[in-house]
Amino acid sequence: xxxxxKIILYTTDSGNVSxxxxxxxxxxxxxxxAIAELFETDRSVITKHLSNIYARKNWIRSQxxxxxxxxx
Length: 72
Hints:
Low-confidence stretches: 67-72
Strand content: 5-15%
Shape: globular
Radius of gyration: 14 Å
Number of helices: 3
Structural class: mainly alpha
């Protein structure tokens, strides 16, 4: 099987890219603080968007997501 993984890196106006990402079982994981830094916004904005995603999809937050949220 030929799998192709693509990652898009967004840069700041100065061209800097710095992110901390964990890759596990085919998934990328980032803490909310890192996502907020990547998009140059406040963590509360990321929390709001994630909450909206869970609400729209009727998803149940898994234990790992809750545990990662505790480590700000």
